[in-house]
Amino acid sequence: MNTTAQLAQIANVQSAFSVLAMLNMYGYLYPEDAKVSDGDTYDYIVIGGGTAGCVVAARLAEANFKTLIIEAGPNPSIDNNLPGLVTYLINSHSTWNFTTLDDGFTEKCHQQAGVYDRGYVLGGSGAVDYMIYSRGNPRDYERFSIASNDPSWNWTNMQKYFKKSEKLYDTRVLKSRYGKYHGTEGNIGVTKENRSVCDEYLEAYKNAGEPVVLDGIGAGILGYSTALYHIAEGVRTETATGYLTPIKDNPNLHITRGSMATKIIFDDNKTAVGVEFVKNGQTITVKARKEVILTAGPFKSPQLLMLSGIGPKDDLEGMNIDVISNLPVGRNLQNSIGPMMCFKTNREANPEPFDAHQLVAPMIIGNTALNKSSHHPDYVTVNFIVDDYSYFLSFCAFTIGLENSVCDRIYSLADNKQMLLTVLLNVIPKSQGVVKLRSTDPFDQPQIFNGYYSNDEDLDAVVEYMKDYVRIEGFSKFQSMGLEFLKATDKCDQFEFGSTEYWRCYALCMVASTIFHCGTCPMGTVVDNQLNVIGVHRLRVVDASVIPNPVSGSIFAPLVAVAERASDLIIKSTH
Ligand SMILES: Cc1cc2nc3c(=O)[nH]c(=O)nc-3n(C[C@H](O)[C@H](O)[C@H](O)COP(=O)(O)OP(=O)(O)OC[C@H]3O[C@@H](n4cnc5c(N)ncnc54)[C@H](O)[C@@H]3O)c2cc1C
């Protein structure tokens, strides 16, 4: 087995899945495609049927508003629905395949600067993501409140939206003292990792001084616990299936798929009055009686705003775009990143037979504070227990995008033993990237500069976190499991192993992106506390771009809660 062969296998399987996707086998689950003609009028037009877009459109349709979703992609297919197939979804028929500009260092260990994929499918990135379901902690939402100058975005207030959207299936958690933090009637089914292989690792983390908790999200507590996933009864739950399927015959809900929004149209009073989109080569303009709601995600929403005249004045003028509102659109790109760290154990790797209804590698999530009296994590670890080496090679080379030689080296060092694979994330990165227009063609990818470690403090912080985390090797329980850190790359060998210089080199080379991007149209500077775009009327953004800072360890669940709240705000402010 080697990485080249594994990548070839992925390409073959992906071709088969793209053919299956054309059959639209799950089409019966979703609303039929609407017949939309030039000049048609809706109460609300939602641009992008992704994670947030499906929530908002469903709530508006339920509230009796005639609502149109304009979605570029098709319906989800079998590889979107079955959790075990997630490895095949990057760079696939259901993603946009964005890449970033060269940042000068990531390419040392990676095939290219960065794979920044997003869902190109109804349900959006929630239909291609890794399904980790968590809420972050109170400090993350305090930062929303500060950015928006509105305390109502706080953690306590957001809990009702988490509960409203969640349907937790795990009876152990529900019966525990954490049960009260969870929802049981919501649209997003959630299950907990329960494979017994995790138990030994949880014990070992406990032995290493980390709290082990049954439920890692409800109270925003520190410690280690098995992951929650947005999976229910063996099937991924994203917002298309969770929110649109139950109301698929609602006459207020209209969807046009395969439709690329190219411009938001404003009248002379800077009021958004319609949207132009292209379907099957034909340009169609639709009108909004009440509002246009942009939910195209953290790369495409800023692109569309800029193409429509909302963005940094100098950049727009440089492209001969008339400026309607001069705002720092695209300027605050943020993401949770950190190095991938691999350990082998003395347990023989013993892969289970493939089961498409569950993720291949069980996950444990850790929230760690360096100062043990703190209530907030400094870093989050996403820990995979890996028995299946073909999965490992796919994750390493395809999902994280590391060079084949790096993945082959880890494979050989791991010596067919069970591995602990940790992605360590800095929860408060200070670095920022940028999304800019590449051209005035809406079909062009925007330019994305990832900005990883552009603020030196982030690298210093991550080095401290790695040094802290790698100490687990020295504790008796992990020692008895033979835990051993694997030097995944030889590109740092000029530095003494364990020195600050070594870890700095390792962190840069082995950086892994979570693809939890946010902040490109943040609350406070591009949208106000009600998510209205500043300086214009009747236009909101509701997607990951409005989230001003990363939420520790995930973004899907926080965004669903933000979209639930945004729906309330929109309905209450109905003109
Ligand atoms: C590979 C991957 C793994 C991830 N893993 C996790 C995880 O495990 N846990 C977690 O919490 N988060 C995860 N995330 C992040 C999370 O899923 C996303 O941040 C979140 O779903 C983004 O939602 P959104 O509504 O902002 O955008 P999206 O869900 O991306 O929705 C945007 C929608 O708009 C459509 N669109 C874009 N432009 C146009 C246009 N011009 N016209 C019409 N339609 C358009 C797109 O096709 C898409 O459907 C992951 C993301 C990816 C990509």
From TrEMBL:
GO terms for molecular function: flavin adenine dinucleotide binding; oxidoreductase activity, acting on CH-OH group of donors. Gene3D superfamilies: FAD/NAD(P)-binding domain, Glucose Oxidase, domain 3. Keywords: FAD, Flavoprotein. The keyword S-adenosyl-L-methionine does not apply. Residues 297-311 form the Glucose-methanol-choline oxidoreductase N-terminal domain. It comes from the Eukaryota. InterPro entries: FAD/NAD-bd_sf, GMC_OxRdtase, GMC_OxRdtase_N, GMC_OxRtase_C. Its cofactor is FAD. The keyword rRNA processing does not apply. FAD binds at V121. Pfam families: GMC_oxred_C, GMC_oxred_N. PANTHER family: CHOLINE DEHYDROGENASE, MITOCHONDRIAL, GLUCOSE-METHANOL-CHOLINE GMC OXIDOREDUCTASE. Belongs to the GMC oxidoreductase family. This is Glucose dehydrogenase [FAD, quinone]-like. It comes from Spodoptera litura.
